[in-house]
Structures are given as structure tokens and as C-alpha cells.
Design brief:
With 619 residues, the chain is of the alpha+beta class. The chain has three domains: 307 residues, ATPase, nucleotide binding domain (Nucleotidyltransferase, domain 5, 2-Layer Sandwich); 108 residues, Substrate Binding Domain Of DNAk, Chain A, domain 1 (Sandwich); 89 residues, Up-down Bundle (Substrate Binding Domain Of Dnak, Chain:A, Domain 2). The strands form seven sheets. Strands 1, 2, 3, 4, 11 and 12 form a six-stranded mixed beta sheet that branches. A hairpin with a 3-residue loop joins strand 20 and strand 21. Helix 3 packs across helix 4, helix 6 packs across helix 7 and helix 11 runs parallel beside helix 13. The longest helix is centred in the last third of the chain and has 42 residues. The structure holds adenosine-5'-diphosphate (ADP) and magnesium ion. Magnesium ion binds next to loops.
């Protein structure tokens, strides 16, 4: 009789038990799906052998939905029903979009809770729904190519995606019926594709220039473990912006300065894009549009896009500084994204880092391949200790404290998943509730940071100010999603919230927030110092006021008068003084002047406590 075999823990199960997982690179411009097959990771293609699927959806007549190339073909004849660049709109609101300066021809409906909805012939469509159509098409392609149902997928997102954008991506996946094993940052996926974990150690820069986003990530590799030291970039800069510059150049040559209709505009952008791609290999191309024709040289095009290239290198410099590194400390530079095929990009990036940038793996495929490798591990086909991945938080997370200050709980660039706790206390006697206001950003004052969520911890037992101990815990999971809980350590009452930020948060551009915090850091320090003194002043006014109300009989009238006068002086100063040092001196003065009163109150309460005990003992 044959014995039934049981595989060793961590060893790959039999082929028929294999779970099928894929990696999906949901790009702004193009999407890809890849899987690990017996020969290794592979990008899956359609019947024609095409691997890139344009991230485009067309809502056609009779409810037919086209995706990919067939949608792209309709983009010129039916621009209003053909949705492109929807990834840029994921998790954003209308205000954000206006700020991004997108050239989108759609008819937006602006009335729904800030999330942009696009009017199409099938009705209003959200960017989440459009992304779901693309993800669905990728899953279908995979199931066809692999001949089996999918058990799950790893979906990549730009390192710059904030909570709302990550959540929107997950929502799109579930709308498409895909189980998300994990969201993975695109640059991290690229590093995995290159198998860089096999090296012993090193510093790796991943330069990812896509159609609509630019990401630079500095990874540190030690003993086979990646750690993302810092991320940076620009969530609104990519190869499509090159197209726009070339299109504007064509308009200039044509001497047209009127606005083109959406149809013409799309056609012009297509012409510009073709010229750009052709110039990757050629020194000069013929360009024709609307009856005009001319020539564009590679040199002239490089001049047009030079300012954008410089912008990416400035991001690289800033991010290196965040990581505490100099460019010559980077051992490897990895190129990702279609535009990194351009000679000028390869040249400028290599020059900046002082070494030849790696481009051996197809820069279009590299992210999907890495995602597939990760999916294979997460779905359970390989031992998990193969690869340990660490990502980082793009912005600090904190809580608002008295005086509108922000206390950072988890600092920016901390590796995730992470959990951090800090204890807080009540500000007033008898306070039984506490508002936990969750903030994101680098600035010192809550007004300058972004509000992520707010909830209330209720039923804290009534105690004197400062006696309660409330433990606030921030937890960020591997996908970068945050949950916050607050717990009173004495009564164990607890409240928590999962931060699923509303789609569309004002001012969501992380670059701007960081720039802002650098620009304002000195002013912020002074503002913080003042706020801290103001909070101290408030506490002293509150304490002294309460003491005078309850125990004035311990003092003679002149003493009461003197303390009252001091209290009012402090109140005045709290309201008008902007110099934290002066305010601090006043607080000290009032504190010293009221010390004897505090001592008297202490003695009185000890006496009454003793009296109480005597009575108890007598009973
Ligand atoms: P995303 O990650 O945003 O989907 P991709 O990495 O697929 O973007 O890059 C898309 C961009 O790459 C587009 O702007 C496209 O025009 C550009 N691109 C693709 N191939 C080339 C090429 N050979 N030369 C220049 N640009 C290219
Ligand atoms: Mg990409």
C-alpha cells in the first residue's frame, strides 16, 4: 500500500495543489500581469503576444465596455467616453485634480462628496470603477493564460500613494473580484525582480519614471533584507508630460493658440507621443498634424524636456538627503518605467549617481515581475522566510494635543508594518472624554497638518487632571493602512478607529507638504514653543482658579487679592504675548508666588484625610 505523502513545511506542494497568484502592475498608462511559472517569473501576454495593456476604458454603445488597446483605438473618436489616467484620480477629490493640472477632457460631476465622477454614456463612473475594469481585464487575461482561477494578487502602487489612494486601489480590486494578497510599492517590486536580495548588502536607488508619476526610492539591503530608507518623487510628473511639451511645441510651430476640441487635442497628444517614442532610437523624426508637417530632432526634444528631467534629479537629491546619504554611497541604480528607455534619461540619471544605471530587465516589465515573485510567496507556494520586505511611511503620523500641537507617534520613513504607543492624560479635573484627532504631516501645528480621522474615547472615570493614563496606539499594516486605538489603562475602556480616509483629501500632495515643512521648520519651532507655554499658562490659570474657588478660606484677604491679581496678569499675557520666553517667566513668577498656597492646601487635605481615617477606625 502506498503511503500518503506530506510535504515538508515551507516546501512547495504538489503541482495540483499549487495556488495560483499573480502580480499586477496597475499603471497610470499601462498595466501588466505576471506570474511565476515553472521557468520563472513571466509577464503574461494576450493571443497576439502583447504584454502591455493600456490603462484605458471605453464605455461603448449598448453597454459594451472596452479595455486596453480596443479602448485606446476609441480614444480619438470617442474621447468623452474613453477614460485615461484614472489612476491619477484614484482616491483624490476634485480640488486635488484641479491642483494637478491634468489635461483631461471629461465632463465631471462635481456634486458627490468630493470624489470625481465622470459623466459617460452609461452614467456616472468613478475612477475606482474604471480601475476595476482594468484589473478585471488583467485577471481575465491571467486566468486564460494560466488555465486556472486566481487565488490572489499582489497589486503594486506608487510609493507616493497615501492612505486614500491605497484604499481606493484595494476597493477597485474587490470590485473586480480579486483577492488582494498585498499592495506593494512599485520600486520595492523592481528591486525584487532584479533579485537584489541575493547580494550581501548595498544601497540601491530605484528611479521610476512612468507615464504619470515619478518615484525615487532609496533601499538598503543587508543580509538579504530590503529596507526602504527613504522615498520621494512627484506624483504628477511623467512621460505624458513630455508629450504635452512636445504637443505645445507643435502648436507653436503651427502658430495655433486657440484651444483644441477634445478630439483634436487627443490626436495631437498621440502624434507627440509617437514622435517621443521614435526619438528613443532615431536622431530625427517627421511630425505631421492637421495638414502641417515638420521635423523634430532628438536634441530639440531633449531641450524641451530638460526642465522636467532636472526636476526629477532635484527629487533624487532631496530623497538622498532624507536617507542621510550622498549620491556616491549608492551601489546600484535601477531604472523603471517606459521613459527610462530614452537616452537622455539613462544618461542624466547615470551621471547624477556617478554610475551606470541598470536597465537589463525590460523597464516596463520589471515591476510586474517583482510583484509576481512576491505573490508567489504570499499565496503560500514558497517559504515566507525567503524574503522579508520592509516599506516605509511617507509622512509622519501623530495626534493633536492641547493647544493645537501635533505630537508625532510614528515618524516619517519608519519601516512598516509598525505599531507604536504613547501615553496621554487628561487636561481638566473630572474630564471623562478625550478626542483623538489623528494627524498626518511634518508640521508642528495641527492646522498645518492633514486631518485623517477623529474619534472620542468616552467613559473615562472622573479623576483630577493628569491622573488618567490613556494609551494611544498607532498601527500601520503592511499595506500602509492605519488603525488607531485609545485605551484608559485604569478602567480599560477603549475606542478605536480604522483610518479609511474619505476619498479626496485637500492638499494631498506629499511633496508640497514636505517642502512646506522644510520651509517653515524654524517658524514652527517658535510657534510650538509659544503654544507649549500657552498650554502651561492655561493649566496654571485653571488650577489656581479652581484652588481659589474651593480653598480661599485658607488665605487672608490680602493674599487672595494678590494671587487673583497675578492670575489676571497671566491671563492677559496669555492672550496677547507672542514671546514664549516672556510668557514662561510670568508662569514661573505665578508658580512661585502661589507655592505657599499649594502647601497650605496640601496640609489641609492631609489633615482631612487623617480625620477621615480616624472616623473609619472608630466605626
Ligand atoms: P505607468 O507606470 O505610469 O503606467 P509606464 O512605465 O508604462 O507608465 O510608462 C508609460 C510612459 O512611457 C508613457 O508616457 C510612454 O509614452 C512612455 N514610453 C514608453 N516607451 C517609450 C520609449 N521607447 N521612449 C520614450 N517614452 C516611452
Ligand atoms: Mg509604472
Amino acid at each position: 500500500m502506498a503511503l500518503i505523502q506530506i510535504s515538508e513545511p515551507g516546501q512547495a506542494p504538489e503541482p495540483h495543489e499549487r495556488r495560483q497568484a499573480v502580480g499586477i502592475d496597475l499603471g497610470t498608462t499601462n498595466s501588466l500581469v505576471a506570474a511565476v511559472r515553472s521557468s520563472g517569473p513571466e509577464v503574461l501576454s494576450d493571443e497576439q503576444g502583447k504584454t502591455l495593456v493600456p490603462s484605458i476604458v471605453n464605455y461603448g454603445e449598448n453597454g459594451i465596455v472596452f479595455t486596453g488597446d480596443s479602448a485606446r483605438q476609441r480614444s480619438v473618436s470617442d474621447p468623452l467616453n474613453t477614460l485615461i489616467s484614472t489612476k491619477r484620480m484614484l482616491g483624490r477629490d476634485m480640488n486635488d485634480l484641479d491642483g494637478l493640472g491634468l489635461h483631461l477632457p471629461y465632463d465631471f460631476d462635481k456634486h458627490d462628496g468630493g470624489m470625481p465622477l465622470i459623466k459617460t454614456r452609461i452614467g456616472l463612473v468613478s475612477p475606482i470603477q474604471a480601475s476595476a475594469e482594468i484589473l478585471g481585464a488583467m485577471a481575465m487575461r491571467a486566468e486564460k493564460a494560466l488555465g486556472s482561477q486566481l487565488d490572489g494578487a499582489v497589486i503594486t502602487v506608487p510609493a507616493y500613494f497615501d492612505d486614500a489612494q491605497r484604499q481606493a486601489t484595494k476597493d477597485a480590486a474587490s470590485l473586480a473580484g480579486i483577492r488582494v494578497l498585498r499592495l506593494l510599492n512599485e520600486p520595492t517590486a523592481a528591486a525584487i525582480a532584479y533579485g537584489l536580495e541575493k547580494a550581501d548588502e548595498g544601497i540601491i536607488a530605484v528611479y521610476d519614471l512612468g507615464g504619470g508619476t515619478f518615484d525615487i526610492s532609496i533601499l538598503k539591503l543587508s543580509r538579504g533584507v530590503f529596507q526602504v530608507l527613504a522615498t520621494g518623487g512627484d506624483s504628477a510628473l511623467g512621460g505624458d508630460d513630455f508629450d504635452i511639451l512636445i504637443a505645445d511645441w507643435i502648436l507653436g510651430e503651427l502658430q495655433i493658440d486657440s484651444v483644441l476640441d477634445p478630439h483634436k487635442r487627443r490626436e495631437l497628444i498621440e502624434v507627440a507621443c509617437e514622435a517621443k517614442v521614435a526619438l528613443t532610437k532615431l536622431d530625427m523624426v517627421d511630425v505631421s498634424f492637421s495638414g502641417w508637417s515638420g521635423k523634430l530632432t532628438r536634441e530639440a526634444m531633449e531641450k524641451l524636456i530638460k526642465p522636467l528631467m532636472e526636476k526629477t534629479l532635484r527629487s533624487c537629491r532631496r530623497t538622498l538627503r532624507d536617507a542621510g546619504l550622498k549620491s556616491d554611497e549608492v551601489n546600484d541604480v535601477v531604472l523603471v518605467g517606459g521613459p527610462t528607455r530614452m537616452p537622455i534619461v539613462q544618461h542624466d540619471v547615470s551621471e547624477f549617481f556617478g554610475r551606470q544605471a541598470l536597465s537589463a530587465i525590460n523597464p516596463d516589465h520589471v515591476v510586474a515581475l517583482g510583484a509576481a515573485l512576491q505573490a508567489e510567496i504570499l499565496v503560500g507556494n514558497q517559504s515566507t522566510d525567503n524574503l522579508l520586505l520592509l516599506d516605509v511611511l511617507p509622512l509622519s503620523l501623530g495626534v493633536e494635543t492641547m493647544g493645537g500641537l501635533v505630537e508625532k507617534i510614528i515618524h516619517r520613513n519608519t519601516t512598516i508594518p509598525v505599531s507604536r504607543a504613547q501615553d496621554f492624560t487628561t487636561f481638566k479635573d473630572g474630564q471623562t472624554a478625550m478626542v483623538i484627532h489623528v494627524m498626518q504631516g511634518e508640521r508642528e501645528l495641527s492646522n498645518d497638518c492633514r486631518s485623517l480621522a477623529r474619534f472620542t474615547l468616552k467613559d473615562i472615570p472622573s479623576m483630577t487632571a493628569g491622573a488618567a493614563k490613556i494609551r494611544v496606539t498607532y498601527q500601520v499594516d503592511a499595506d500602509g493602512l492605519l488603525s488607531v486605538s485609545a485605551r484608559d489603562m485604569v478602567s480599560a475602556v477603549e475606542a478605536s478607529i480604522e483610518v479609511k480616509p474619505s476619498y479626496g483629501l485637500a492638499e494631498s500632495d506629499i511633496t508640497e507638504m514636505l517642502k512646506d515643512s522644510q520651509k517653515n521648520s524654524r517658524a514652527d519651532v517658535a510657534a510650538r514653543a509659544l503654544r507649549e507655554q500657552q498650554v502651561d499658562a492655561d493649566r496654571m490659570i485653571e488650577d489656581l482658579g479652581s484652588a481659589l474657588r474651593h480653598d480661599a478660606d485658607l488665605l487672608d484677604t490680602s493674599e487672595v487679592e494678590k494671587l487673583r491679581a497675578l492670575m489676571f496678569e497671566l491671563k492677559d499675557m496669555r492672550a496677547s504675548c507672542t514671546d514664549h520666553r516672556l510668557l514662561s517667566e510670568k508662569i514661573k513668577e505665578v508658580g512661585e508666588a502661589s507655592e505657599f498656597f499649594a502647601a497650605k492646601r496640601m496640609n489641609a487635605s492631609i489633615k482631612s484625610a487623617l480625620v477621615g481615617r480616624d472616623l473609619d477606625e472608630m466605626e
